[in-house]
Amino acid sequence: MGLLLRKIDFRQLATALRTMDYRFLVPAVLFTFISYFLRAVRWKFLLIPEKNISLKSLYPATIIGYMANNLLPARLGEFVRAYVLAQREGLETPTVFASLVIDRLFDGFTVILMLLITLLALRLPQGMADADTALKVGGIVTFLLYCTVIVFLFLLKQQTMKTLAFVKLMLKPFPAQFSEHLIPLLGSFIAGIRMSARGGHIAAVLVSSVLIWTFAVLPVDMILQAFGIHLPITASMFIMVLLVFAVMVPASPGFIGTYHYACFKGLSTFGIAESTSISIALIIHGSAFFPVIIAGFYHLWSGKISLSAVRKAGATR
Predict the structure, then answer these.
(1) Per residue in 192-202, pLDDT tens?
(2) How far apart are CA 125 and CA 122, in angstroms?
């Protein structure tokens, strides 16, 4: 945040915030929650081989997980999300977490597809060769990362003992206690990776993946319009891709700083004034950050789940 705000005129920033049409915040927040609901729908189909779980359980667990991501470091919300659902539905936490790994793989490939569309359809202004190169490099790195994860999961599933032995060998430089904890966890985890082979279920996962990111991009477009900025939807996709890359960087809870800086740089690409760019970055982050925290606490309260249990779930994983 210091890097982002070091040269900003705060009077101009306040003026930019005052000129915003706050009516656009309503659809922006609504689209954000639709995106989370669609995540719960996709999760349902990923967990079908284990249990046909109601959305009444999946949606609150999803919101609580994302609330925890905003409040806890290192994306521990993913563990919290798995823990909450496992406790509610009587499932093993590693099994539920395994479904979230598949969930994130679908996210990764959907983002790569969005990046490809952006690179083909969006013409960046002249002099933005560096941004274009950064996107291409980021896309290649992300693609290779997800391919590596898929290969590892395939080997872990098909050659479990050999792969676990290899992992144990690679962990020799680390304390023995770490290896003794991780190896059994990996064994439990891979046993939980199962996916329905039914065409309808696979189609539901694919369609929901596209819709999830459609409704994740729309709030960006809504907030741009709130500031009187009318850019093609591919510009909002471009900004979203930058945000996805930014949140991969280890940062503070809620991705404060890295999120804002990536959004600011993306907006600057289109010649938007610095004060306006930072205002937009703050609103885009805030419209997803605070409503989810409020909703997460509501679902904790309605589900009679203690905050200390959520913190413990994150801390012990």
Answers:
(1) 677 787 889 98
(2) 9
Q: Rounded to whole angstroms, how far apart are CA atoms 105 and 142?
A: 11
How far is 227 from 280, CA to CA, in rounded Å? 8
Distance of CA 166 to the CA centre of its chain: 30
Asked if residue 178 belongs to a domain, the reply is no
Judged by average pLDDT, the poorest of 171-175, 219-223, 250-254 is 250-254
* Exposed e or buried b per residue across 109-121, where buried means at least 16 C-beta atoms within 10 angstroms of its C-beta: bbbbebbeebbee
Number of domains forming the structure of the chain: 1
Rounded to the nearest 10 degrees, how much is the dihedral formed by the CA atoms of 6, 293, 44, 89? 140
The pLDDT tens digits for 187-244 are 777 766 777 878 899 899 999 999 999 999 999 999 999 999 999 999 999 899 888 8
**Domain assignment present for 163:** no
E strands in 152-218:
none
